[in-house]
Write a structure and sequence with these properties.
mainly alpha, 2 domains, Formate dehydrogenase/DMSO reductase fold, Cytochrome Bc1 Complex, Chain D, domain 2, two-stranded parallel sheet
Length: about 475
């Protein structure tokens, strides 16, 4: 919990720094009193975020040392020099701290060239998140690290810029004029659109490399947190789309939406801009700033999920405890007549109708059957030849509750040890089940074993040699 909290502070302060610096570069060069005040406040905000980031980096180092050594806080502080000088983590965090100190010393300079240099230093510091996270499992200079860094930068420019914009434009004592909003927000909107595209591409790659399988979206903690994060991002995208297509064109007529965007969000514009008859008119500037504030708050939830993901084991590394109590090897599979206690006998069905049910459920995709009308299976599954020798109640159980007794075999079970065969309790009527069991009962004899090849001359058994002198012959040795 503490590690996730510290990482969340690191992510939030870093994103706010990057977003604030980029937002400052988007300000127009024209002199405007409200924008001059905003520039000064933005420099103070970025400076504060840099200080918080430096302190959080120190806290992250202590938390990591405690996690590695399981030592007390005092012992962790004493071990800082050794960790910084002798470990990969120490080198990376030390490089981050150095870059942040340089950025902090230069951030007060008003020259745009200095601001660009500060931004480059902070972007270098952002790479240390990837070098100490899950993306560095394959090494430092890898595609995963580069993609993760691009993902962090794009997300920081978008959400960090939203936070800085909400803090500046939402000040009641120094509100922005309509002209200032019209000069800054369209530029930021275009930046947010490009950032969203980069986040979608890089995030898809990160999910593919870290998740380890589609089923782990709901079977692992990492996957469930990822689903929550994606849901919150979807809300953030919808809010931004409404502001972009429903509000911004009213503020800047030349920025009106065209094509698909205009048609897709025409209804959103009506909902947002048309309230009941006689309702007081709210300036579009206030509505737009209100949407920016809401987006910034939603962005905080995204950072919370991202911090948790950084401290949770990726889905590809998660191993599941196999369930072994119901597993049976093929050699001990129950055979003819030997039904377990409590096994019921279903009513007799029609084998022809059961064959049609077998074909409709595509059972032959995984199971080989002694029926020449079905093609060989393309996926792993037990051979059904000889299944008719089993008690019909056990056949019913294997269809309706595949995990009651699991046959071990190549590809027969998933990573948890559960059967890969789905149950059909909601897809079969009682009559269809009886017909299907009747069809399977027709396979009473197992497949004939392949004939052994006849021995060649080289493999012919050697003739019995005559006994040595004084030894009895084989006939004499028999009782």
């Amino acid at each position: 919990m503490i590690a996730a909290l510290v990482r969340g502070i690191v992510l939030l302060s870093l994103a706010s720094t990057i977003g604030g610096l980029i937002l400052g570069l988007l300000f127009p060069t024209t002199a405007a009193p409200d924008l001059d005040v905003a520039r000064a406040r933005l420099r103070r905000w970025v400076t504060t975020c840099l200080v918080i980031l430096l302190v959080a980096t120190w806290a992250e180092l202590l938390v990591r040392i405690q996690a590695m050594s399981d030592a007390s806080l005092g012992a962790s502080v004493a071990a800082v020099p050794s960790v910084v000088m002798g470990t990969h983590l120490g080198w990376v965090l030390a490089a981050r701290a150095a870059a942040l100190v340089v950025a902090w010393l230069l951030v007060s300079e008003r020259s745009q060239a200095f601001q660009v240099f500060v931004l480059l230093a902070v972007l270098g510091a952002a790479s240390t998140l990837s070098l100490t996270g899950h993306a560095a499992d394959w090494g430092d200079v890898t595609l995963s690290v580069a993609v993760d860094w691009l993902h962090a930068v794009a997300a920081s420019a978008w959400t960090g810029g939203l936070i800085a914009l909400a803090l500046l434009a939402g000040q009641r004592e120094a509100p922005w004029s309509r002209e200032s909003l019209a000069a800054v927000i369209p530029r930021f909107s275009r930046l947010a659109g490009l950032s969203l595209l980069a986040v979608a591409i890089t995030g898809s790659y990160n999910t593919w490399t870290q998740l380890g399988g589609f089923s782990r979206l709901w079977s692992t903690t990492y996957g469930r947190v990822l689903v929550a994060k994606l849901s919150i991002v979807a809300v953030l995208v919808c809010l931004g789309a409404v502001a972009r297509y429903a509000l911004l064109p009213r503020l800047v007529p030349s920025y009106a939406a065209r094509g698909i965007g205009a048609r897709a969000f025409r209804m959103a514009r009506l909902v947002v801009l048309r309230r009941g008859h006689g309702a007081p008119s709210v300036p579009v500037e206030s509505r737009l700033v209100a949407y920016v504030k809401i987006e910034a708050l939603v962005g905080l939830a995204v950072f919370a999920c991202t911090a948790v993901l950084g401290e949770v084991t990726p889905g590809r590394h998660v191993t599941f405890e196999r369930k072994t109590t119901t597993h049976v090897p093929p050699a001990t599979r129950p055979g003819a007549g030997g039904s377990r206690a409590g096994t019921v006998t279903p009513p007799r069905g029609d084998a022809e109708r059961g064959r049609a049910v077998f074909a409709r459920l595509e059972c032959a995709t995984c199971h080989a059957v002694p029926d020449q009308s079905f093609a060989p299976p393309t996926r792993p599954g037990p051979d059904l030849a000889g299944i008719g020798a089993r008690h019909p109640g056990e056949i019913v159980e294997s269809i309706m509750n595949p995990n009651a007794q699991i046959l071990d075999g190549p590809g027969y079970t998933d990573e948890r040890g559960l059967s890969t065969m789905p149950d059909y309790r909601d897809r079969l009527t009682v009559g269809e089940l009886s017909d299907l069991v009747e069809y399977l009962r027709s396979f009473e004899r197992p497949a004939a074993p392949a004939p052994e090849p006849a021995p060649t001359k080289e493999q012919a058994p050697a003739k019995e040699q005559p006994p040595a002198s004084g030894e009895p012959s084989a006939t004499e040795r028999q009782p």
